[in-house]
Amino acid sequence: MTRSCPSHTRFALSVLLGIALSCGARAASPSGQAPAGSGRGVYEHWCAPCHAPGPGHPGTQSLQVKYGGKTPAVLLERTDLTPESVAFFVRHGVLSMPPFRKTEITDAQLAAVAAYVARGSRAP
Predict the structure, then answer these.
(1) pLDDT tens digits, residue range 46-98?
(2) CATH T-level fold of 34-122
(3) In sequence order, what are the residues at sequence separation of 6 or more whose Cβ sits closer than 8 angstroms to the Cβ of residue 108?
């Protein structure tokens, strides 16, 4: 007996697979990048592949469609994010963004990246 997945399940799995492959395809961090445990380092490793500016960043493209230019689509250009809201979305996920487990982003790293993203372009 064979089981088939509903089309929405196949779509969700294909989105997650695409995210996983894009994350796994990154090369090791070149020198000059922020330390891995810092807010910037966590952002560069886990968030920037989807949320950096420019084409080819699905998180940014999704937010561009969602906000229609009324709110910046690039996370680091936002001024309305709080560390609590960033931490919630990172830990629980939203729409096509998967949740990040404590084995991927520790609580300390989550606090650091949430503060970094919430500061956005106001960061030094």
Answers:
(1) 999 999 999 999 999 999 999 999 999 999 999 999 999 999 999 999 988 99
(2) Cytochrome Bc1 Complex; Chain D, domain 2 (1.10.760)
(3) 37
Tracing tokens 């089981």 back to the chain, one arrives at 3
How is the chain split into domains, by residue range? 34-122
- Rounded to whole angstroms, the Cα distance separating 52 from 4 reads 36
Q: What is the pLDDT of residues 66-79, one digit of tens each?
A: 999 999 999 999 99
Q: In the 8-state DSSP scheme, what is residue 37?
A: T
Helix, strand, coil % over all residues of the chain, rounded to 5: 55, 0, 40
pLDDT per residue over 100-120, tens digit each? 999 999 999 999 999 999 997
Tracing tokens 């886990």 back to the chain, one arrives at: 46
